[in-house]
TrEMBL record, chains A, B:
GO cellular component, one term: Golgi apparatus
Cell compartment(s), UniProt: Golgi apparatus
Broad class of enzyme this protein falls into: isomerase
UniProt family annotation: Belongs to the RGP family.
Organism of derivation: Turnera subulata
EC number per UniProt: 5.4.99.30
Protein name: UDP-arabinopyranose mutase
GO-annotated biological processes: cell wall organization; plant-type cell wall organization or biogenesis; UDP-L-arabinose metabolic process
Length: 350, 350
């Protein structure tokens, strides 16, 4: 089964957009130039729209600030967060491509143990173009990689797997820890390069980080809404988590796959743990209700598209999490607005 | 959370037995001497009991052949397979220790990427002594290893995890493939050292290989029955798979953890794929019924011990798989006999 993966040949130039949320000059792109330059960039400028963001020469990009978001979406712009990296999902909404890769502007090119620079984008594309195996665990990890296969005892009927919707990459150097862990272990660095890609099994939730993430927009795009965070909201740093929980239950319902592992990027700078704690603290306790909610979500079998699933999920959020805090009522409404905006900007061809 | 793992100090000398099923002289132990010599070995001699098996000097061992099995178990000896490595579970039955490590006699000491010999047993012990995380996926793998932790978005209430019942190790060189895959890829070798230990999530089945396996006998011992295989049976090479499926659904029911990944051993020799195909072919199609069965098993909440769970599972096997082949009726009866033998040899202190 390893054959397909070795035949995958990036770059898929015309089928992928790179989405970057930022508040600063994008000097970090210099290091990514050999890998990103063939692609179109969608830069979502957060914060003060009057500020000019410098983009290194030679990149093909479009840049949208808050004024553009408001102009394009009108009243529906309320579903796009401000002063939070959750604003990145605006880029997902306006892209017309099949695949999205999104990366934070403090993430640099990592090296593998042999010292070679890692082409994160190529690995994401390989992850997305080969099937996932959510229905049974393969102990030798991704059976579609060269040199690997399904092990003895893996049912043959399950070996075709499922289409891969999401590829979740990891981080060397600064790990993606919450504020309490940052405070307790300020010096911990991730130095372990784990040479594996694996499917997160059906029925299992995971913490999806938006720092180094790719997905098939046609398969799961409408579920990649990063919620209401930041300015005017009681919470931050749960944008990608929220998207991950929603997307995973929908992937499970629709028999789509989610992979995690390779590729690594080099995460350069830990964000301020005190600021993070302020953003996170409500999330840390709300999460104790949110997770059991997502673990018990059952979507009706009549929901056969991501949009239908997402609309249903928004109802369940309102109904089952509304009592936790009025925020979830607002979030459920924003989920509806997001789907309306998605359908408006991404009309299905008749 | 990484602290506990770094404080684990093997060897646990008086709490662990090494179980080795074999039909030949155990010269392979020479290579393992620095790691195994402190431990007690239970050697289960398969095949002709009149043959003498040579064990290198200096090891503390007991050796049991078929005559011993028959003498000790009387009519219940029927549940112990003959001419199949499934006989290894006799060693699990008669051990009085808390932990078991079992290894095949064609498995040698592997080296990590730095060239250092891997102490497989020490890694298994570390895996067993630290908690598993079956209720939520941690993207940085085992949070109890040095240099790792739970990532942002991992619910705090789930961070204590679950006691680890099983540690499933992997194999460099000859991968554990089924006969069809062996035939199709005779030259494939596993050369990828994946530096990870992970928990197999709750609700997910996996193919458990008996080649390099450790478990907590107190927590899961009665479920580690390797079934009826080999001589007089229509099937072989599904002994460890059967044990793995039974053990996993029981671990899930009792909130116990199963880990897979490190340690690697060096698997020296591929078994004959033509012989394997003969042993496996019924299993390959029966499995298409077996897996849906195990995926849908729900054990009653009244079952609070492994023995109770296993007895219940034997009833379900008879009821739900009996129609697949009369073999499963026999297997279900053997499961009952096994549990009776377990209770006889391992009476619970009053």
């Amino acid at each position: 089964m390893a054959q397909p993966s070795t035949q995958v040949s990036p770059p898929l130039k015309d089928e992928l957009d790179i989405v970057i949320p930022t508040i600063r000059n994008l000097d970090f792109l210099e290091m990514w130039r050999p890998f990103f330059q063939p692609y179109h960039l969608i830069i979502v400028q957060d914060g003060d729209p009057s500020k000019t963001i410098r983009v290194p020469d030679g990149f093909d990009y479009e840049l949208h600030n808050r004024n553009d978001v408001n102009r394009l979406l009108g009243p529906k712009a309320s579903c796009i967060s401000f002063k939070d990296s959750a604003c990145r999902c605006f880029g997902f909404l306006i892209s017309k491509k099949k695949y999205i890769f999104t990366i934070d502007d403090d993430c640099f090119v990592a090296k593998d143990p042999s010292g070679k620079e890692i082409n994160a984008l190529a690995q994401h594309i390989q992850n997305l173009l080969t099937p996932s195996t959510p229905f049974f665990f393969n102990t030798l990890y991704d059976p579609f990689r060269g040199g690997a296969d399904f092990v003895r005892g893996y049912p043959f009927s399950l070996r075709s797997g499922a289409p891969t919707a999401i590829s979740h990459g990891l981080w060397l150097n600064i790990p993606d820890y919450d504020a309490p862990t940052q405070l307790v272990k300020p010096l911990e660095r991730n130095t372990r390069y784990v040479d594996a890609v694996m499917t997160i099994p059906k029925g299992t939730l995971f913490p999806m980080c938006g720092m180094n993430l790719a997905f098939n927009r046609e398969l799961i795009g409408p579920a990649m809404y990063f919620g209401l965070m930041g300015d005017g909201q009681p919470i931050g740093r749960y944008d990608d988590m929220w998207a991950g929980w929603c997307a995973k239950v929908i992937c499970d319902h629709l028999s789509l796959g989610v992979k995690t592992g390779l590729p690594y990027i080099w995460h350069s700078k830990a964000s301020n743990p005190f600021v993070n704690l302020k953003k996170e603290y409500k999330g840390i306790y709300w999460q104790e209700d949110i997770i059991p909610f997502f673990q018990s979500v059952v979507l009706p079998k009549e929901c056969t598209t991501v949009q239908q699933c997402y609309a249903e999920l928004s109802k369940l959020v309102k109904e089952k999490l509304g009592h936790v805090d009025p925020y979830f009522q607002k979030l459920a409404d924003a989920m509806v607005t997001w789907i309306e905006a998605w359908e408006e900007l991404n009309p299905v061809a008749q």
